[in-house]
Specification:
Layout lengths: L6 H20 L4 H50 L4
Helix pairs in contact: 1-2
Length: 84
């Protein structure tokens, strides 16, 4: 659907769009208004999904860096204890 959005989130968004379109049209809102409203909602969700994916990637990087730091500190402790 959009670059940067995970596939399962994109599929959920597509289902939500379809449901919203039916609901809006069922209430007598003209199609152009419905499409504009849905476009606004979709853009909002897409921004949130991309932001979440960015945060998740950042957290993974932080976890990796923390792991590498722990390994390095452990090696330093081993050297100070006379290991190796």
């Amino acid at each position: 659907m959009n670059k940067g959005i995970p596939q399962d989130a994109s599929e959920s968004l597509a289902r939500a769009i379809g449901s919203a379109r039916k609901e809006i049209l069922g209430r007598g809102i003209v199609r152009e208004q419905a499409d504009l409203l849905i476009e606004d909602v979709v853009e909002s969700y897409q921004r949130e999904i991309v932001e979440f994916a960015t945060i998740t990637a950042s957290q993974r990087k932080d976890i990796f860096n923390l792991r590498e730091t722990v390994i390095w500190l452990n090696e330093m402790l081993d050297e100070n204890r006379g290991g190796d």
